[in-house]
Amino acid sequence: MSPEIENAIRSVARKCHREIRQAIDGKPLSERDSIITTLLDKYAKQIQCLPPNDFPPKRWLAYYISRIDKEQRGKA
After folding, report:
1. In the chain, which residue ranges form alpha helices assigned H by DSSP?
2. CA 6, CA 42: separation in Å to the nearest integer?
3. Which of 3, 6, 7, 37 is the most exposed place for a label (fewest CB within 10 A)?
4. pLDDT the model gives residue 37
5. Which domain of life is it from (predicted)?
6. pTM of the model
7. Whole-number Å distance between alpha carbons of 45 and 56
């Protein structure tokens, strides 16, 4: 994957991560899965043509969100 594509996906992943954190703040655990799934679907449409065809865009987005979360928590 080229650096330009990776940077574009990371940019969308940062926006999605920020929105997820705001949306699930104070929500019970039972509601979080549906909120996260909805937001992943929304943002996956933005990167649909970017990632390689190895995995679906939603999976690439979830991977980069996970990496960004680890970086922000200082575990990377």
Report:
1. 3-24, 29-44, 57-73
2. 19
3. 3
4. 93
5. Bacteria
6. 0.85
7. 11
